[in-house]
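Appendix B, Record 12. Input sequence as logged:
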Amino acid sequence: MYVVISYDISEDKRRTKIHKILKSYGQWMQYSVFECDLTETQYAKLRLRLSKLIQPDRDSIRFYFLCACCEQKVERIGGEPIRDETIFFA
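Logged structural output:
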């Protein structure tokens, strides 16, 4: 599943932890936005890890799920090039 994740975390220390976790699951696109291509298991683990860190009354994390068709319609102008994570075996 292709997921765009945005977050608004009020405290620097928590925000840094959230950023590091998300960086291990996807590509950082903008200050508080990541694009992730996840399996259902990866998503469940990620969501659990993030929910343990945030303070729900002060912080928020949003998950936007894009279907395969919609993923192909994403347009980008500028910014970091998209990583090619294709693995080739010899």
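The first helix runs from residue 12 to 23.
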